[in-house]
Specification:
By secondary structure, the protein is α+β, with helices and mostly antiparallel strands. Helix content is 53%, strand content 18%. The protein has four domains: 98 residues, no CATH class; 93 residues, 2-Layer Sandwich (Beta-Lactamase); 72 residues, Helix Hairpins, CATH 1.10.287; 166 residues, 2-Layer Sandwich (Heat Shock Protein 90). The structure holds adenosine-5'-diphosphate.
Length: 443
């Protein structure tokens, strides 16, 4: 500033000196001083105009090169603008990181303004509600999400709970997805809308309910029969023979309950125990010999009253030097289940083929084929569900629990193996288990 005052004084003095030199009068000197002052002011105005023009754009690259007072202002403005630019870049980066994190969320997120217009939504929310992230911005949510439950929830303005709406996509089994939606107020009456796919949760809950109902039913029926017999034994004077008959029937019901409980315990053990070892090798012949023996005994028991035995053919020629990695108890129970089912569902006189094969690619296959009644195609996908039975009376008559194939499926999953079922009504069924090369070896 003192330098500026000095410049003004110098300009006036030079002007006054030149005016005196040219005119030789005081008026000339005063005029010269005035011209000097105007010249300095003009230069000032031009420099200020350059600075103002630049400040309007704020483009750091086009900053004017000025010295002195205006140069100082230019330099300070430049530093200030650069600081603001940096802050803006950092904020923008943070915002982008934040939005990317919300995009990555498995849940849907929508930001609504106080009128309910969409300000922003992530991809998951767009998928849940069939929205277009760009096109549907500024649209009213009530116009896009027409589910009556949601509209009621939205207009009631009580967001303390969520509401479940039908999603736009179809989940497994062709069922419409179930989406849980909850709104949260924030800021200046804006709304955060969160959505979550709860289809799997609802299915698990339905399965749990079905399972409890099935177990209760399986236990309640023999229990009712048992208590009926107990009442009869208590209240009626029975002959010795009749008493023995009733006691035998009671024994059957008790063992039916025992089988259900034991299969349920097997299933829960399979679910809860660590995966079977892949380094413990079991000779296949020892696994199969036991289950074939068991099947023969079962066949005798079942076919004895009718007098027509099963034709049981067992080909274990390729099992001789073969070993399987896993749990012998679990594998044994899977093999026995398949062979016993063939025996139980094939009428006397029918044929049952049990084969162990080692395939050229190193896989191994266990196959049980029967000439039983066969299973209609619509039942095949559901056979491994718990308590799913095609032939209820045959299953119960032969001591079935409806859990056998569920156990097989679990055991196979734990051994990286796969069950395939082929069946033709009136011709027979073929159940085969395929083990991966990593679980089989030849000694
Ligand atoms: P269960 O204890 O009732 O036999 P499973 O889970 O072992 O239960 O089998 C489920 C259902 O599949 C059975 O109830 C039966 O209807 C059908 N099934 C299984 N194996 C055969 C087979 N070899 N032939 C015909 N039906 C079968």
């Amino acid at each position: 500033m003192p330098f500026r005052l000095l410049m003004w004084l110098l300009a006036q003095s030079v002007g006054a000196g030149l005016g005196w030199a040219f005119s030789g009068s005081l008026t000339g000197a005063l005029f010269g001083a005035l011209v000097g002052l105007w010249a300095v002011l003009l230069i000032d105005v031009v420099r200020a105009a350059r600075l103002l023009r630049w400040l309007k754009t704020g483009d750091l690259k086009q900053a004017p090169v000025l010295t002195g007072f205006w140069g100082e202002i230019t330099e300070r403005s430049r530093r200030w603008i650069r600081g603001l630019d940096q802050q803006l870049t950092e904020s923008e980066g943070r915002l982008q990181d934040f939005l990317a994190a919300i995009q990555a969320s498995p849940n849907g997120v929508l930001l609504l303004d106080p009128e309910g217009r969409i300000e922003w939504c992530n991809r998951t929310a767009a998928l849940h509600f069939g929205l277009d992230e760009q096109r549907d911005q500024r649209q009213l949510i009530g116009n896009l999400l027409r589910d009556p439950d949601f509209l009621r929830y939205y207009s009631a303005r009580d967001f303390s709970q969520d509401v479940v709406v039908a999603g736009r996509r179809k989940g497994l089994g062709g069922r419409q997805e179930s989406i849980s939606v909850q709104l949260h107020l924030y800021g200046n009456a804006q709304m955060l809308m969160l959505s979550r796919d709860i289809t799997a949760l609802e299915q698990a809950e339905a399965m749990r309910r079905d399972f409890v109902a099935n177990v209760s039913h399986e236990i309640r029926t023999p229990l009712t029969v048992l208590s009926g017999f107990i009442e009869t034994l208590q209240n009626l004077p029975l002959e010795k023979q009749e008493r023995a008959h009733y006691l035998r029937l009671m024994g059957q019901q008790a063992s039916r309950m025992q089988s259900v409980v034991s299969d349920l315990l097997t299933l829960s053990r399979l679910e809860g125990s660590p995966l079977p070892s892949s380094t413990e090798w079991i000779p296949v012949t020892s696994l199969l010999a036991h289950c074939v023996q068991e099947a023969k005994s079962l066949s005798e028991v079942i076919t004895l009253p009718h007098g027509r035995a099963h034709e049981l053919s067992v080909d274990l020629s390729m099992a001789d030097r073969c070993e399987l990695a896993g749990s012998s108890v679990e594998l044994q129970s899977a093999f026995s289940n398949l062979v016993n089912n063939a025996v139980r569902y094939t009428p006397g006189g029918g044929r049952i083929d049990v084969v162990w094969r080692v395939l050229p690619d190193g896989h191994a296959e266990f196959e049980v084929k029967d000439t039983g009644p066969g299973i209609a195609p619509e039942h095949l996908p559901r056979l491994t569900e718990r308590f799913y039975r095609v032939d209820r009376s045959r299953s119960r008559e032969t001591g079935g629990t409806g859990l056998g194939l569920a156990i097989v499926k679990h055991v196979l999953q734990r051994h990286d193996a796969h069950l395939s079922i082929q069946s033709t009504m009136g011709v027979g069924s073929c159940f085969s288990i395929r083990f991966p090369a990593t679980r089989t070896r030849q000694t």
